[in-house]
Amino acid sequence: MKRALLTATLLLLAPVALASADAAGWLARVGPALRGLDYQGTLVVVAGGQVDTLRVFHRVDAGRERERVVALSGPPREVIRDGSRVMWIGTGNAPVAYDMGQAGRWSEALAVSEAAGLAGYRARLGNDGRVAGHAVQRIDVLATDRWRYGYRLWLEKRSGLPLRMDLLDGEGQSIEQVAFTDIRLGRRPADADLVPSAPASVEPVSSLPPGRSVPARWKVPVPPPGFRLRAVRPLPDEGAHLLYSDGLASVSVYVERVDRGLRGESRRQRGAVNVHSFWLDGWQVLAIGKVPAATVDRFARTLRSVPADG
After folding, report:
1. In percent, how much of the chain has pLDDT > 90?
2. Alpha-carbon gap, residue 59 to 44, rounded angstroms
3. Which of 36, 239, 250, 310 is in Cβ range 3.0-4.6 Å of 256 for a Cys bridge?
């Protein structure tokens, strides 16, 4: 009887395990596709009640990635990547280039594909479909608790390239969408497509200094499951910027001195980004991140000072 029950249980679990393995196999194709393919197309981003349209050019020359993303709506702006160097243009400042470190994430889809095995997430195989005229396989990377969002990716079947990605709330509803409306896979962008629009006289050579970690004078004693302190940057007058992450989602917590007479708090939301701040006893605490409101509330409310002796 026990053996029969065990056999029945294994048979019930087998499809789940197989689907998970299949999902992992699909996600493993995302990185090589994003890094190794030539393509160009039009990308639409729907977030926070706004719609942005971008033109994307991506080319690989003997292992060296080159990419240019140009905004077709809103203020003129573009991002250019050449190897490990990235330049932003059109933000109101002079173009700045810097080397991307190991933590550099050019594509959120890449980060999602690599985070499927992290605590707090599980991947599963979805249905077939079509995006921008291409056959795709849907993969869900779902949050297993209320502290983070989930994701849904549509991967082009032959290459594994992500053609659409949705950010999902706790009910599985889409709150942000990024999708190609047209894309030409294997279409090699011309040299002119990858050239920055900034004048030739601009020399984007400044470097971004690495973040300096210091002992934390502030901390969240019990962050949400899976989140841990990744970096601490000092701010004037014993303030600090703390970065917590679960490997995919992140929350920044800022602590700064303010007038001791200030009291109050505020909550704001723009699209998937939530902010919780309050003023008390001469300090302002602000937590912000692309996470559910309950998560930033937890970080803001449980932040504590650490005694100087430990």
Report:
1. 57
2. 20
3. 239
List the chain domain ranges.
2-194, 218-305
Instruction: Report the distance separating Cα 120 and Cα 113, nearest Å.
Output: 14
R_g of the chain, CA atoms, integer Å:
22
Share of the chain above pLDDT 70, in %: 81
- pLDDT tens sequence across 122-159: 999 999 999 999 999 999 999 999 999 999 999 999 99
What's the CA gap between 307 and 310, in Å, rounded? 6
SS3 of 39-106: EEEEEEEEECCEEEEEEEEEEEECCEEEEEEEECCCCCCEEEEECCEEEEECCCCCCEEEECCCCCCC
CA distance 226 to 249: 10
Picking from 76, 98, 77, the residue whose alpha carbon sits closest to that of residue 87 is: 98
Taking the CA atoms of 260, 263, 268 and 274 in sequence, report the sign of the dihedral they define.
positive
**Residue pair 263/238 in contact by the 8 Å Cβ criterion:** no
Q: Evaluate whether 67 touches 85 at the Cβ level (below 8 Å).
A: no
Q: Does residue 42 contact residue 55 with C-beta atoms inside 8 Å?
A: yes
Q: What angle do CA 15, 145, 104 make, to 5 degrees?
A: 95
- For the cut 80, the answer to whether the pLDDT of residue 199 exceeds it is no
pLDDT band of residue 86 (cuts 50, 70, 90) is: confident
Q: What is the CATH number of domain 218-305?
A: 3.30.200.100
What is the per-residue pLDDT for 94?
A: 56
Q: Which pTM was predicted?
A: 0.82
Query: Looking at residue 84, what is its pLDDT?
Result: 78
Which amino acid appears at position 103 of this protein? Answer: A
What is the rounded distance in angstroms from the CA atom of residue 237 to the CA atom of residue 149? 34
Give dist(CA 79, CA 57) in Å, integer: 11
